[in-house]
Write the structure tokens for this entry.
Amino acid sequence: MRLPRGRLRKSRVVTDPREPLAELLDRGVTGYAVFEPQDSLLLDADGRGVVTFDDGIPVVAYHTGTDRGGPPALADLAVPGPYHISVYELDGTDLATVHEVDELRVPPGMPAERLAGDPALADSTRRAAPAERPTGAETESGDEHGAVEAFLDDEEKIAAIQEQARQEAKQRAAEWGLNDT
Amino acid sequence: MVEVFAVASGKGGTGKTTSTVALGMALAERYDVTVVDADTGMANLLFHAGLSDVETTLHDVLAGSAAVGAAAYERFGMTVVPCGTSLDGFRDADPTRLRDVVATLAADTDVILLDSPPALDSRAAVLPVVMADRAVIVLQPTIPAISDGLKVQEYATSYDTDVAGVLFNKVREDGIERVAEKTERYFGGPTLGAVPESERAREARRAGRPLLAHAPDCEAAAAYRRAADSLSVRDGTSGEVADRFRSAVIPEPP
């Protein structure tokens, strides 16, 4: 997926992707966000997710590490934070070509469901989506459990999440002097 | 007997406080229950238990200016220890005093539920999970919530806190059984229950009443009662718990 670089509007580390998704929706941003998980254990070093937005509503998703697009790209990207997030603004015309690729498209509320785990934000995103976008009733709300099950079937990914958390817990216990409790 | 549970989730918005209060009320039918707002930075319990006007809270106890008994209120068949919401109260509170609070409460109750902060990013935030006997992990059936729940479990077990079980909350779709079955493979405890997304729960929160008092006959309330029934409370002596909490080594921040 190729996009013009655009105007960098934000670049920061967040613990929860809910915050940038809500902000992009509120501000009605047109452009794209690059999500880079900070945990190198979980993804290839160059594994990044890109989600485009039209007036604050997510349109397509792509993952550079797995080279998958659409809902599978969101599944690849759904790992515990923090994420480094960069937001670039573009003109709508710069996104037109990539927005026509069906395999890359995601239902409007899906990034809020799968990356932020926030059904309420997903609802507001769906409500704000233009009428011509499928609301996702048929593709989205009936299938969240399916996505969760697919995630739970990925034993390697779960093991990596557990291992990362174990190391983090150990390291912080030492930092916080909680080893003897 | 006394057992201390941390009700935890790695993520906000899972309905943890609603769940803590609901489990507390349901368990209060069989046990003497004390519910403590251990989320000292973002107090919430007082709004769920009709205690938003009380003068003395856990903040005063943690600041050393009140005894635990002065911040303990008998409500809805339980003892409720709410936290205050003021920034000054938070600033003056020493979260490490929580261990003394729990040790004191342990002398006089069967079950202590610690409503824990929805984060793992500071010593104060992990303290309830560190100090509890077991953790109840509240999950929404979403990928991020389950990922964060896995993190909570790793933190808990690294401090020898067992997982009592997983409680799914705000369930919107059918088919949670398959998700629960697959989730159980990764968690140390069983699925305690699955509580449906509920307008009654939102109403209860607005009314400042626990769900089980506001709408005892609704589906969500019934699911919480079943979850509480499936939670087996272990015997621990009050003295042991008190000793363990008092001896927990928690140094002052640098």
Q: What stands out?
A: Chain A touches chain B at residues 15-17, 75, 78-80, 113-120, 141-142, 144-145, 147-149, 151-153, 158, 161-162, 165-166, 168-170, 172-173, 176-178, 180-181 (CB under 8 Å). Chain A has a mean pLDDT of 86. Helices of chain A lie at 18-27, 71-77, 92-99, 110-114, 119-128, 137-141, 144-153, 155-176.
